[in-house]
Amino acid sequence: MTLLEFENLRVSLGDRPILRNVTLSVAAGEAVGLVGESGSGKSMTVRSVVRLLPEGAAVTGAVRFEGADIASLGAAGLRRMRSRDVAMVFQDPRAVVNPVRTVGDFLTEVLRDQGVNRADALRKAAGSLSEVGVDDASRRLAQRPYELSGGLLQRVVIAAALLTEPKLILADEPTTALDVTTQEEVVAILDEQRRRRSVALMFITHDLELAAAVCDRIAVMYAGEIVEILPADRLHTEARHPYTRALLGSRPGTVPPGQRLRTVPGVPQSALTAPPGCVFADRCPHAEDRCRDTRPAFRGSAACHLLEEVR
Amino acid sequence: MLEVRDLRKEFKGVVAVDGVSFRVAAGGSLAVVGESGSGKTTCARIVTGLTKATSGTVVLNGSVQMVFQDPYQSLDRRQTVRGCLAEVLAHHRKDRSRIGELLDLVGLDRALGEALPRHLSGGQRQRVAIARALAAEPRLLVLDEAVAALDVSIQAQILNLLVDARAATGVAYLFITHDLSVVRHVCEDVVVMSRGRVVEAGPVERVLHRPDHEYTRRLVASVPRPGWVPSRAVSRG
Ligand SMILES: Nc1ncnc2c1ncn2[C@@H]1O[C@H](COP(=O)(O)OP(=O)(O)OP(=O)(O)O)[C@@H](O)[C@H]1O
Ligand SMILES: Nc1ncnc2c1ncn2[C@@H]1O[C@H](COP(=O)(O)OP(=O)(O)OP(=O)(O)O)[C@@H](O)[C@H]1O
Ligand SMILES: [Mg+2]
Ligand SMILES: [Mg+2]
Questions:
Q1: Global confidence as pTM
Q2: Better-predicted residue by pLDDT, B187 or A150
Q3: What's the mean pLDDT in B198-213?
Q4: N or C, which terminus of chain B has less Cβ within 10 Å?
Q5: Residue B148 and residue B181 in one domain
Q6: pLDDT at A151 > cutoff 60
Q7: What total number of domains does chain B contain?
Q8: Candidate from A39, A152, A247 with C-beta closest to B123
């Protein structure tokens, strides 16, 4: 069953296109990874789900949650969606948590808003903390954010995200600031919760191996567009789009230390200077005239004119 | 180039850094890896003079620049990308005409020169911070998670750039990162920190392939790789 659907989503700011044609669906309980170029619109894509776009953003196309276009939600509907159905976890937990209030206040806020009494809210909060592996919940509830390391605080944010029993979690680089052991624990928690409660997940990361381990499908973005979508376990073997292949080929570790890493020639471009044809044409090693002139439609798993030619 | 001896830092009686020592040779490249909250950033801030140590010594021969973990807080939010670079170049008596070249070096579309920090994505801001640090041409560059928020293709471009700059000018790096494959690629030596202390140190090859300390072993085992299934409770113990 489709939970979330982007259909030809376009977002622009003034005359700058930010998202150019995003079409993607996420099933209930499914995990979809968003990887790709820095500045390509990954954060904007997930933010558009809860209408957290910069002021003045012009949006066309549709984002539907459980079949309803979010553009048609009134203020109350939007608030309800943000506090109940959809939870967000960002890269920097300190930007989300009010620094002067206690962890307990932070965790119980939404429940209290929903009319749950304080004692019940605290009990649920403590339960949620232990579910994400934070021990000694009663002490933690009384602490303030600066007393917790980044890894602990991110687990608090995830506990808060799970408390409202959302149907969808939007995770924007939730582990970029964490060490790899803490990262492993955090993604294991997300995974476990997803399976247990059938929560859907949109997971943004720059780590392709991490995306492959956490997600069912992976969407690759470049200059405001999704250029390829494929099952996570086939990322390495079946990636066809030249940009995806270039990404896979530029990870450190693909060449011995001391050798130059492979990069994509040319300057990365933001969607604002993208050409009329394929967004990747001017940097693609295989580009032909038609690539520069005509925008490739999505065929099968990728938007590329040369899927048959490029092997 | 840099010698740090027996560094200790307490925040209101709580010990964040406890007896940390390491050195970076001129033109060397030292990685600092370890647990979140183990004191890596605190050490970096002490080295660059932003934080005062409770005790211990830092000897530094030459200029230092730092790229911060969170560039948003270190960039002036009213200054455009171009304005920010122009200021640093002027301050170091360098030619303003280098702005375009610096933007190209870090892979930023020149069209973003007029943008303010809040108009940039996370990785774009990170690249502005890197360009600004490079503009000053320091002898030691401290990079605190400087490439974590970049896609791997731009990251590759920046890592190549750092390798080239080191070969050409002899700049030294203190490279704080969570990414062990980045460590393997750009550093010679590594220091592993846990709970404010150095638990293991040595050449990258040795430490990452034959770790002595239990924490280093767990770190290496947690790196995502094909077939890896994340499991809980690895970080405790
Ligand atoms: N507030 C804003 N005003 C104007 N432009 C913006 C704003 N925020 C982001 N942009 C632009 O929108 C584009 C998409 O940004 P977005 O943050 O979605 O990128 P991203 O794919 O998440 O990148 P990263 O991997 O670096 O986080 C970028 O080119 C960025 O410059
Ligand atoms: N200004 C401060 N006041 C109080 N405690 C602090 C302060 N700055 C840092 N700490 C504490 O010192 C310890 C070390 O923090 P530091 O930021 O150096 O860790 P780190 O190794 O850089 O972690 P990360 O990998 O998460 O960035 C942490 O427990 C942190 O909570
Ligand atoms: Mg982003
Ligand atoms: Mg740090």
A1: 0.91
A2: B187
A3: 97
A4: C
A5: yes
A6: yes
A7: 2
A8: A39
CB B60 within 8 A of CB B47: yes
- Give residue-wise pLDDT tens across range B53-74: 999 999 999 999 999 877 667 7
User: Which residues of chain A neighbour B13 with C-beta distances below 8 Å?
Assistant: none
Q: In 3-state terms, what secondary structure has residue B24?
A: strand
Q: Which residue from B45, B54, B31, B50 is spatially nearest to B198, judged by alpha carbons?
A: B31
B146 & B132 share domain: no
Q: Which residues contact A10 (CB under 8 A, 6 or more apart)?
A: A17, A19, A20, A21, A22, A59, A60, A61
Reported ipTM: 0.86
Domains identified in chain A and CATH numbers: 2-254+261-310 (3.40.50.300)
Domain span at residue B18 reads 1-62+139-203
d(CA B195, CA B37): 7
Residue B95 has pLDDT above 90, yes or no: no
Going from the Cα of A115 to the center of ligand 1, the distance in angstroms, rounded, reads 37
Residues B47 and B146 in one domain: yes
Q: Which atom of ligand 1 is nearest to the CA of A41?
A: 18
* B208 domain residue, yes or no: no
Residue whose pair of structure tokens reads 């993208």 in the numeric block: A274
Classify residue B67: in a domain, yes or no: no
Whether the CB-CB separation of A203 and A211 falls below 8 Å is answered with yes
What is the spatial distance between Cα A95 and Cα A91, in angstroms, rounded to a whole number?
Answer: 9
B189 touches A at CB < 8 Å? no
Above pLDDT 70, what percent of chain B? Answer: 97
Residue with tokens 């600092």: B32
Average pLDDT score over residue span A158-181: 90
| Statement to judge: residues B53 and B157 lie in one domain | yes
Over the stretch A187-220, which tens digit does the pLDDT of each residue have? 998 898 888 889 999 999 999 999 999 999 999 9
Identify whether residues B58 and B86 lie together within a single domain.
no
